[in-house]
Amino acid sequence: MRDQRVWREVNRRNRDWLRPWEATIPPPTPSGPIAHRPTYRQMVRHLRSEANAGRMLPFVIEYRGQLVGQLTVAGITWGSMCSGHVGYWVDQSVAGRGVMPTAVALVVDHCFRTVGLHRIEVCIRPENVPSRRVVEKLGFREEGLRPRYLHIDGAWRDHLVFALTAEEVPEGLLRRWQRARSSSTPHDNPA
């Protein structure tokens, strides 16, 4: 709850940059309830409740001591599946510095090594090139297209599915990402 002011400021400053990629609430159907965007307090309560139930892992992302984004592992399914999907956003001011790939790699390693998940998915709108670069840099495998998968920016939007399993990164995703960064040229890897 103490991050509310900073979280709101980062979101406000990045509103136009994030809008094309943010989930929206679909219009009500005749048989469905009227939904509204939750308040910050409601969002935090929901994240905590889902985390306590073992269905979600919510994180904020900090860079040099400042809150710059959010990353959530949601849809965690146990039993014979042991999987979840990752969603994220980052402040435009730090985009391209390796913050998001590093955050995703850390979380995937936590999910595989500590939590015990076997598979992680990331679903991205095809036209979201910066987000696609994150999963490409990390070596996620593209699996296909999910037509009209999520309600984003006011309409049902197609998403590409990218995935990794624990067996694909036995050394850990962070280690693989660090190795890839150190072997790339400075032009390919902005600091």
UniProtKB/TrEMBL annotation:
GO terms for cellular component: cytoplasm. It comes from the Bacteria. Belongs to the acetyltransferase family. RimJ subfamily. Keywords: Acyltransferase, Transferase. This is GCN5 family acetyltransferase. One of its GO terms (molecular function) is protein-N-terminal-alanine acetyltransferase activity. Pfam families: Acetyltransf_3. Residues 5-167 form the N-acetyltransferase domain.
